[in-house]
Specification:
The complex is a heterodimer of chains A (252) and B (285). Chain A has 252 residues and is α/β, with parallel strands linked by helices. In chain A, 37% of the residues lie in helices and 27% in strands. In chain A, strands 6-7-8-3-9-10 form a six-stranded mixed beta sheet, sandwiched between helices. In chain A, strands 2-1-4-5 form a four-stranded antiparallel beta sheet, with helices on one face. In chain A, helix 3 packs parallel to helix 6, helix 4 packs across helix 6 and helix 6 packs parallel to helix 7. In chain B, helix 1 packs across helix 11. Chain B starts with a helix and ends with a helix.
């Protein structure tokens, strides 16, 4: 058995009085891809956005329970949130490049973490863009504004930006929901390659996508974890009737 | 059928009404400008800018007035810009959302709508009398700074709020601190709109007369201020003074002063528009 990267027990989360996660127990394993599936409003986005505490930005958000990252409670008072977010990278639903050049998008996150040597930054920019399979498309236009790229290219730039600071975990919050099928295929291929070196959690609406990219799948419904197991098992012989109903398309 | 043609007529009727109201505003403004130019353009000359006011209208100029305006604007900007932009950034990016900040927000919005003469009374009581600054440039600058402070705070917040949340998310998610996010992502993205707000606030301050008269700005000055504690006058006060004189010559002087003041506000507003345009071209979400 691999060690879990995240050990989560009795996790609850709410926005004001509205509770959206009602006691989640789940272990997320290292160097594997865990897909979170479920219908809209089931709490899957809230779940993944709690793992790097990006949801702290939302007023009235509150999470409780044990959320251990490598044995450390990430919601305890003495956690350095800034450092946590460096170690746990995130790619969002809608590509969100900075309104700067392609180069500066990556250089910014490096400078934020104290890199200031020009050659080093150049080198990491190229390396990250290569990892994100974007280098060949943009290498001659690094000074171009990132917002002029296509949606799929923007998303891969966001992945490159995340990879640049060498996180330990990658969180993908519906990374392909705004992309066309070809871009989606590229991003999925990328996730497949990144699996070698990273622990990946991906929220997705698309069940074929979960089946294609993930090793483990978790099915969420109305703030509860209904079923969690190997993706193959979840999709071929689900234990819970609700999981079966969802994956066969009877609701959602 | 009947309803369709009625809707069409309504549509047409509204567009005619719209054109008429725009035309009304434009024509009145145009008549005003033409009238001012007819009265004043003959007085516009180099010596008009380099002469002090005088009892003889043909010798009088706006030297002390425009120099005073430059002084006052500089002091106002020096005080109001850092305070206003700083407060706006704090309230929008740092302060939490709670009753206190809601209360502050409502009050700032209200302060932006307080008549300027009230600020004049505040300046008179606080700066001129209590701090004993007398009717100085410093007192005038401080008073106008108070006047435009709420406007700058509000427009700064507005500008920051227009920066998409996703940019902040992207920055925080890559492990940036709040200051890094605000300094390197949010402020650059909002810079054009912040400056636009600032310039518009300043162009409002340029034309203010009431608060400066209230704190006791002079209407006749035949010397140039040498420092912050000297008395002063400004363009709109000079114009006001000339308009109230009975002689026809001063009337022409007032018109010429109005042309200068109009030109000044026009330049400032044009700068604001150019700036906004420039930054909008650079940043498209």
């Amino acid at each position: 058995m691999q060690n879990p990267t995240f050990e989560i027990k009795a996790m609850r989360a709410s926005y004001g009085a509205k509770e959206v996660l009602k006691g989640i127990d789940i272990n997320i394993l290292s160097n594997s891809v865990t897909a979170i599936i479920g219908p809209s409003g089931c709490g899957k986005s809230t779940f993944i956005r709690s793992l790097n505490r990006i949801n702290d930005l939302i007023p009235n958000f509150h999470a409780s329970g044990d959320i251990l990252y490598r044995g450390e409670d990430i919601y305890s008072g003495d956690v350095d949130v800034v450092d946590l977010r460096r170690r746990i990278g995130m790619v969002f639903q809608k590509p969100n490049p900075f309104p700067k050049s392609i180069y500066d998008n990556i250089a910014y996150v490096l400078r934020v973490h104290g890199f200031d040597m020009r050659e080093m930054i150049d080198e990491i920019v190229e390396k990250s863009l290569r990892k994100a399979a974007l280098w060949d498309e943009v290498k001659d236009n690094l000074k171009q504004n990132a917002l002029t790229l296509s949606g799929g290219q923007q998303q891969r730039l966001c992945i490159a930006r995340t990879l640049a600071i060498e996180p330990e975990v990658l969180l993908f919050d519906e990374p392909c929901s705004a992309l066309d099928p070809i871009s989606t295929a590229k991003v999925e291929e990328l996730i497949h390659q990144l699996k070698q070196n990273y622990t990946i959690v991906i929220v997705t609406h698309n069940m074929q996508q979960a089946a294609r990219v993930s090793d483990h799948s978790a099915f969420f419904l109305m703030g509860e974890l209904i079923e969690f197991g190997k993706t193959q098992d979840i999709f071929t012989k689900p234990v819970d009737a609700r999981t079966e109903a969802y994956i066969t398309g009877r609701f959602g | 059928m009947n309803r369709k043609s009625r809707n069409k007529r309504l549509d047409k009727g509204f567009s005619i009404l719209g054109i008429a109201s725009i035309a009304f505003g434009l024509i009145v403004l145009l008549v005003l400008i033409i009238d001012v130019f007819l009265d004043g353009s003959a007085r516009l000359s180099w010596s008009f800018f380099t002469s002090f006011p005088s009892r003889k209208p043909e010798l009088a100029g706006i030297l002390s007035a425009w120099v005073g305006t430059v002084w006052i604007m500089a002091i106002t900007a020096l005080i109001a810009l850092p305070l206003g932009i700083g407060a706006g950034i704090y309230l929008e990016e740092y302060a939490g959302k709670n009753r206190l900040t809601d209360f502050i927000e409502i009050n700032i919005a209200n302060l932006a709508g307080v008549p300027s003469v009230i600020y004049g009374l505040l300046g008179l009581g606080l700066f001129v009398r209590y701090f004993n600054l007398d009717r100085s440039i410093l007192a005038g600058g401080l008073t106008l700074a108070l006047l435009i402070l709420p406007v700058i705070i509000l427009s700064t917040r507005e500008a920051l709020r227009a920066v998409p949340f996703s940019i902040r998310e992207a920055s925080y998610a890559s492990g940036a601190t709040r200051w890094q996010t605000v300094r390197y992502q949010v402020i650059p993205a909002a810079f054009g709109s912040i400056m636009t707000g600032v310039i518009l606030a300043m162009s409002r301050a340029v034309g203010e007369t009431a608060p400066l008269i209230t704190i006791g700005a002079l209407t006749y000055i035949a010397f140039l201020p040498q420092g912050l504690s000297d008395p002063f006058t400004v363009l709109p006060i000079q114009i006001f003074n000339w308009v109230s004189r009975p002689q026809k010559g001063f009337f022409a002087n007032a018109a010429a002063g109005i042309i200068v003041l109009l030109g000044l506000t026009l330049i400032m507003n044009a700068a604001a528009i150019l700036l906004r345009h420039h930054y909008q071209k650079k940043i498209r979400w």
